[in-house]
């Protein structure tokens, strides 16, 4: 018997394709934390699931860049589809670069994406949310994902980048495809479609960049084009890659905070009622919702050296999944009620939902701002909000959240 199987078990400890996993992956994570916190999967990758270990791995300097070249768990399929060529979706974005390239890209993007520029968006975000809530009030019963959780973060990032409204629909479709590159894809057709979406979205971004160079405006894209550090600027290919990253990171994650967060609150009506009673709880509640159901469930690294974690040696060149969602429920760190939603939990902001180390989410302040505006206004406008129908999950393992969330505004 290998270490990776348990007596009487013939399925791997971690099986994201198992029935029910997309709805509720937490029992599998709990088992991993207890029985094999550093686990070598028979498919040739590793999972790390305890809070302390996930934090250590993300801060360790293990590589993100190597993910594009090192054989991943599904690389046999890529070879079949692409021959020698490995798809390089997002390869020039900061999320896929190690220092020193990462340091340089992040510094330049940070010049344009500043805390001050994010805070300045508050009134516009409130205006967008109020418009969406008006629509919800009128209809009474809606799918909250399609009327609020998705369109809000999309509108915010599309406006920030100065995207022409005529491109919005196509950009939505393409980024919906491109985001699948963060999931374990086994369908060759889908792999090709992702690659094509990357090319087409890159062309749209290139056109926008060319246009903005001629027509600078007060927006993030113009600021990215002009960002400069000691005479260094982003070249066109680098700009395109950062724009694609911002599009996807800007909405395909926050949708899960808003949709999954609302679902969690409505499943625990006492917690929603607490926000209705005391809006001052909202900022802390956003942290707890991020902890309770991580909008990004895992983050991947390749070891550059052998690494010993929790007494287990992971070899050099291993593909390791840091399961953020599991770390956020680790009772060793959070205590016995780790599986409970408590909007007044102390220290909830120490979750790892935004990652840790040099790749810590650059858009965390924007995501928090959107979460605060939404939950504050939702609770004040619809104190009787309730679930009203079956939830459908988006079926994703990593950027996991509800795809359909039927709610009613009346008790
Ligand atoms: C990186 C989560 C919203 C932009 C990350 C990472 C995580 C994350 C886990 C690190 C990935 C890794 O270490 O491999 C989230 C969550 C969000 C969110 C949970 C919403 C609830 C946003 C928004 C933006 C954004 C709104 C921008 C508009 C970025 C960027 C990076 C990043 C640019 C790359 C940082 C780097 O590589 O240095 N995010 N994100 N994110 N995020 Fe977010």
From TrEMBL:
TM region(s), chain numbering: none
Keyword Iron: yes
Gene3D superfamilies to which the protein is assigned, alphabetical: Cytochrome P450
Family as reported in the entry's similarity comment: Belongs to the cytochrome P450 family.
InterPro entries: Cyt_P450, Cyt_P450_B, Cyt_P450_CS, Cyt_P450_sf
Entry keyword annotation includes Transmembrane helix: no
Superkingdom of origin: Bacteria
UniProt-listed PANTHER family: CYTOCHROME P450 YJIB-RELATED (PTHR46696:SF1), P450, PUTATIVE (EUROFUNG)-RELATED (PTHR46696)
Protein name: Cytochrome
Pfam families recorded: p450
Alphabetic keyword roster: Heme, Iron, Metal-binding, Monooxygenase, Oxidoreductase
Cited CDD domains: CYP164-like
MF annotations from Gene Ontology: heme binding; iron ion binding; monooxygenase activity; oxidoreductase activity, acting on paired donors, with incorporation or reduction of molecular oxygen
């Amino acid at each position: 018997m290998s270490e990776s199987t348990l007596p009487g078990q013939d399925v791997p400890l971690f099986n994201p394709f198992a029935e029910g996993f997309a709805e509720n992956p937490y029992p599998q994570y709990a088992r991993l934390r207890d029985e094999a916190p550093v686990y070598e999967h028979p498919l040739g990758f590793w999972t790390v699931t305890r809070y302390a270990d996930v934090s250590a791995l993300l801060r360790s300097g293990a590589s993100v860049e190597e993910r594009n070249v090192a054989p991943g768990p599904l690389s046999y399929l890529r070879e079949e589809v692409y021959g020698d060529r490995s798809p390089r979706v997002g390869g020039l974005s900061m999320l896929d670069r190690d220092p020193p390239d990462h340091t340089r890209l992040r510094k330049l993007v940070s010049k344009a994406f500043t805390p001050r520029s994010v805070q300045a968006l508050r009134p516009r975000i409130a205006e967008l949310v109020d418009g969406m809530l008006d629509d919800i009030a009128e209809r009474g019963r809606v799918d909250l994902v399609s009327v609020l959780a998705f369109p809000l973060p999309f509108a915010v990032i599309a406006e920030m980048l100065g995207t022409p409204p005529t491109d919005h629909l196509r950009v939505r479709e393409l980024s919906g495809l491109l985001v699948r590159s963060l999931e374990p894809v086994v369908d060759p057709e889908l792999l090709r479609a992702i690659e094509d979406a990357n090319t087409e979205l890159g062309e749209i971004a290139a056109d926008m960049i060319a246009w903005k160079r001629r027509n600078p405006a007060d927006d993030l894209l113009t600021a990215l084009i002009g960002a400069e550090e000691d005479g260094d600027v982003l070249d066109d290919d680098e700009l395109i890659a950062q724009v694609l990253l911002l599009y996807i990171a800007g909405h395909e994650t926050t949708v899960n905070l808003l949709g999954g967060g609302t679902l969690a609150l409505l499943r625990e009506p006492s917690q929603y009622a607490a926000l209705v009673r005391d809006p001052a709880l909202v900022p802390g509640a956003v942290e707890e919702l991020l902890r309770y159901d991580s909008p990004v469930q895992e983050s991947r690294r390749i070891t550059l050296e052998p690494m010993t974690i929790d007494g287990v040696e992971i070899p050099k060149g291993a593909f390791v999944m840091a399961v953020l969602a599991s770390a956020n429920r680790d009772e060793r760190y959070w205590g016995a009620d780790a599986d409970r939603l408590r909007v007044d939990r102390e220290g909830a902001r120490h979750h790892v939902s935004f990652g840790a180390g040099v790749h810590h989410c650059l858009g965390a302040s924007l995501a928090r701002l959107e979460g605060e505006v939404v939950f504050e206004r939702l609770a004040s406008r619809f104190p009787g909000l309730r679930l009203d129908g079956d939830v459908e999950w988006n079926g994703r393992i990593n950027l996991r959240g509800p795809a359909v969330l039927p709610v009613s505004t009346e008790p």
